[in-house]
């Protein structure tokens, strides 16, 4: 498949670049065959026209969201956007945002440069970007997956405030990330060298209440903790996160 071009910028925080090229760390999976479910295989074979024999070389994590306009924040290669298009979404109504350009690699992986018209915006969610400012108030569905858990409480609030500014009056903001039984600030370790806050549903509600207050908007948030088994991941792959780690899945709907 030839995903050989390296990107001079990386998506990791600075401290994580020390792990580049290193595969003797708990989060490096030597075999990812079990991640290629039938659904993933169908996307790669039918949408990307990748021969079946090559499919297991690819990993994507697909999430389907619908809406009049949709923004995937922290889009990485754009796999979720492709899944939406595969399921019938009109691709010029989709926006993909990332701090680092993985988007071009996504074209190489999905072989759709000539047919995907989703718009990519390179931006740090925590900064103001002119393009994101133009879109304020216009996005109906925002998705942010596996992004918030990298930050402490205050930066998570800042990130959600940005998403609220982007959202339309009837918007839904959805996401998931690493959570935990018993919300807590994670200690800085050799493996994760910046402070991060992992939520349980109660703390996530509290955070949304703060965001609602600070933005003068009303949001109803539902959040659940799921085990690795429940989301289809092999628990042994993420043992290094500790016995209390879970995935927190959530939906925030804007009220009047
Ligand atoms: C762990 S990946 C998750 C990718 C994808 N959403 C998923 O669920 O598979 C985190 C992504 O968020 C992006 N990201 C990290 N910090 C960001 C920021 N401040 N603004 C925008 N994107 C960011 C990274 O570049 C990376 O593509």
Automatic annotation (TrEMBL):
Protein name per the record: Methyltransferase type 11 domain-containing protein
Origin: domain of life: Eukaryota
InterPro entries linked to this entry: Meroterpenoid_MTases, SAM-dependent_MTases_sf
